[in-house]
């Protein structure tokens, strides 16, 4: 494979973290990334260089661009946490299964060289060879959402209760998780912000869909919690709503934070519940799960994600595929439309 | 042992929880307990009736009186979570080691019949036969503080780091724990509110004593955390100070709440740290520890507490022993003096 000396990429404009609170909506690209032409990077011995076919945009990308993601930005590096592409160069210690020409889904959280570019760099351990029959749109969004969904559903299964709670219920991640949960006889409780998402989520597998913006929310939540007794609360939002849900949950509830879409302060409304009701608050991060999960379990989880996409049980809802050259102008308006993913095509 | 039909007791005036926030200071007894003469209760089959020699007053008693403790008050029942006394009646299933005439330390959290009375009722499992040579003042305060101190220090030892953080550093509980910790080569970091507690706590075993009210606190904390890298934060206070300490702690920090002396709102300043730094927030309750700890470990912990009091490594600082008849009038002013315990003598 011949590799050019230079490539196009969307580079981070800022360093470190945001100095002020901001919301999780991407109002424009220009304050955060600029289109540029830079040298094609060289992968290290444990890394691969990937010719990017399609890069995804996740809520975590937007939080990261805005300096709100809990990891520092590095000015001048390409953005983009995941994508799909073909290996162009494989480092000598990247892994024997990662050959030049192999199609892989990849994540760039550890390498720091993003996917919104012609070429990306990923650690070998952050690459998943993709089987025949899985679309690029599904492979480009294979890691951040589907693996997080399956890994967190694994926590629900270990805990044993059939019901669990999800905020940001209309996200791709939650829809994927609820489908799996329903197939296995579980009863997800999805928290949303708009009534028009209710029917969609009931179809996606939710046993209950509650609108946190409705006036009867607190009462409705109380009734559902009493009936279902969920112990696990998978929270992408934080802020006062998440605190309210946690306080209403029964004994031994676990509030598992995996996202921070509400950048308002997050209170613990009743800290005494930590003592007398044995509740606890923790976090989930896929990179940490990847590091600490036994290889067999990891391989089985990755295989399940691919099979679900291949046989059609899962399918990524695509709102738009935006060419890299148009991304600065067009991504914000495409992202503003609900219920589907936006991709960048180099 | 002849048992009278009636007895004197301090009875709870209120039911349930406080309807408003309040601080943890006992401004007066009369709004919360009244002196009364009631029938001597009959213990159930798993319980014992104890002729109380000395009853202790802990911060958790004050929180409970005021309806701030996370467990509901029951109007008309005697207050008081622990004490020492002699068994007057033993239920048939209370335990073979609990004979009439045996001196025991006892806790009333499960029975609900308090120790601030001539006679108290406790579950057999909440009684500890006291060995010769342990003073009543030490036995009356044997359970809530010493066992909590040893049980929580056990968590520190399991975690492995030599340093850990304590709020309410000048409490009896913290002083007991720091003595044990120093003996075993650990380095407690005590957080206090007044400079005049510093010397006292350095003597009690603190490696560092930080005054949270001083202007340089944040900087000083940062330096100590960097040097000591503590993972466990044993917190009796909650509120904004506790949140600030937790946010400053390194990766994998565990915020373990066991008290709630600051009744202000408790924020999680950086929820992203739960995700990316694997921090977590949980609680500790001695009753739960008693239920879930293997018997050998429990017996060894109880034995260690008694031996430490018997051989003088531990000694309860006594501020006052107030006769039951004077308690309504005198307890608040005695409790207001720092650095020692107040007891009620029936």
From TrEMBL, chains A, B:
MF GO annotations: NADPH binding; oxidoreductase activity, acting on NAD(P)H
UniProt keywords (A-Z) are: NADP, Oxidoreductase
Pfam families from the UniProt entry: ADH_N, ADH_zinc_N
State whether keyword Metal-binding applies.
Answer: no
Q: Which Gene3D superfamilies match?
A: Medium-chain alcohol dehydrogenases, catalytic domain (3.90.180.10), NAD(P)-binding Rossmann-like Domain (3.40.50.720)
Q: Which residues form the Enoyl reductase (ER) domain?
A: 24-344
Q: Which residues cross the membrane?
A: none
InterPro entries recorded for this chain?
ADH-like_C (IPR013149), ADH-like_N (IPR013154), ER (IPR020843), GroES-like_sf (IPR011032), NAD(P)-bd_dom_sf (IPR036291)
Which PANTHER family does the record match to this protein?
A: QUINONE OXIDOREDUCTASE PIG3, QUINONE OXIDOREDUCTASE PIG3-RELATED
For this entry, the protein name equals NADH oxidoreductase
Question: Which species is listed as the source?
Answer: Aquibium oceanicum
């Amino acid at each position: 494979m011949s590799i050019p000396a230079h490539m196009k990429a969307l580079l981070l404009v800022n360093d470190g973290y945001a100095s002020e609170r901001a919301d999780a909506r991407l109002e424009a690209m220009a304050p955060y990334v600029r289109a540029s032409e830079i040298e094609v990077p060289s992968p290290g011995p444990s890394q691969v260089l990937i010719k990017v076919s399609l890069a995804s945009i996740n809520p975590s990308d937007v939080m990261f661009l805005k300096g709100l993601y809990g990891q520092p930005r590095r000015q001048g590096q390409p953005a983009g946490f995941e994508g799909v592409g073909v290996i162009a160069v494989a480092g000598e210690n990247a892994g024997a299964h990662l050959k030049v020409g192999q199609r892989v889904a990849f994540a760039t959280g550890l390498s720091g060289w993003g996917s919104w570019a012609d070429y990306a760099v990923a650690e070998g351990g952050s690459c998943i060879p993709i089987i025949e029959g899985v679309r690029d749109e599904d492979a480009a969004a294979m890691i951040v959402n589907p693996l997080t969904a399956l890994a967190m559903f694994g926590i629900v299964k270990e805990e044993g209760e059939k019901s669990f709670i999800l905020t940001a219920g209309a996200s791709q991640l939650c829809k994927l998780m609820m489908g799996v949960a329903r197939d296995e006889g579980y009863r997800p409780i999805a928290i949303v912000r708009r009534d028009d998402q209710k029917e969609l989520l009931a179809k996606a597998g939710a046993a209950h869909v509650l609108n946190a913006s409705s006036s009867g929310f607190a009462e409705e939540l109380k009734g559902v919690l009493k009936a279902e007794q969920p112990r696990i609360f998978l929270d992408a939002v934080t802020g006062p709503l998440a605190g309210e849900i946690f306080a209403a949950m029964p004994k031994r509830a676990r509030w598992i934070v995996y996202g921070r879409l509400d950048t308002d302060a997050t209170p613990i409304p009743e800290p005494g519940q930590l003592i007398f009701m044995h509740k606890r608050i923790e976090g989930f991060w896929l990179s940490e799960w990847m590091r600490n999960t036994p290889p067999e379990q990891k391989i089985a989880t990755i295989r399940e994600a691919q099979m679900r996409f291949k046989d059609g049980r899962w399918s990524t809802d695509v709102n738009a595929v935006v060419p890299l050259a148009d991304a600065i102008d067009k991504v914000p308006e495409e992202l503003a439309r609900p219920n589907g993913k936006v991709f960048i095509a180099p």
